[in-house]
Amino acid sequence: MNRIDRLFAIALLLQSKRVITGAEIARHFEISLRTVYRDLGALSEAGIPVAAEAGVGYSLAKGYFLPPVAFTETEAQALSIGAMMVAKFGGADTGGSAAAALLKIQSIMPAEARERLIRLGRQVTVFGTHAVPGTEHLVVCAQTVADQRALRLHYRKPDGVRSQRVVEPLGVVLYQNYWYLVAWCRLRRDPRSFRLDRVEEMAPLTEHVPPRQNFRIETYLCTAFSETDTEVVRLWFSSPVVERALRELGPCLRSRDQGDDGWILETIVWGHAWIARWILSFGSEARVLDPPSLRAAVRDEIAALAAHYT
After folding, report:
1. pLDDT tens for residues 184-242?
2. Could you list the residue ranges forming a coiled coil in this record (predicted)?
3. In the chain, what percentage of residues exceed pLDDT 90?
4. Mind listing the domains of the chain with CATH numbers?
């Protein structure tokens, strides 16, 4: 990125945030703090009112807005593909909003670029993936996360037990074809994840909740099952199927090593029943290396399956 592009991008970043530190700008653009200070000075000299508050950070002066930004054709194409993904994984509400936004983008593109964008939309599709359940609650979840508002849930747990809770939304996650609301549960006094297809009723409250500064969704997801019986297992996969295994294991993966005849993956699991069936879905392209108890669970599953055909 050349300096002119970076200066413009810094101005957009300042406009998109209430306040941002010099260190955050440096990390975002992978530049030094000294370069950040020079760039902020250059923006000020160009007439963009950059406000600085000692010990807090930088922002654009209140009431100042950059002029409307035109998208490049490449950016518009990326948004077009993104809108298709949203329509597939986000349900009717978010999909409709994405389609409407895409029409607005198309309307400001030059004629030739607009035709190419429309043609792209006709020839790119998200195929072979089931619709994601629970999307009817997705917009409300996203709004409460953005507005920092508490939320009342009527939730059905996997065992069928129903409960009512007030939660403080922290984020929304799409994981293994399910949408989850990650929230601070006032009943449990701890972060919890709620699968949206198990939410029977949802009502935003007027109460504003402050952000939990030290909470990171990525960290939470890696430890979300620590309260259950978890263990680390070692599995072997042949090279043709390892990409699927990596994709489906997601954040539970601990390590991967390539051998002469395939890959050895180390991952966290909670319970043997589901992982045994999952391993068998790969047929002879996967096997358990450790622990012996999981090998036994796979053998038991094979025996139960064979009994159906005797």
Report:
1. 999 888 898 898 999 999 999 999 998 888 888 777 876 665 545 678 899 999 999 99
2. none
3. 35
4. 3-60 (1.10.10.10), 73-123 (no CATH), 135-215 (2.30.30), 230-307 (3.30.70)
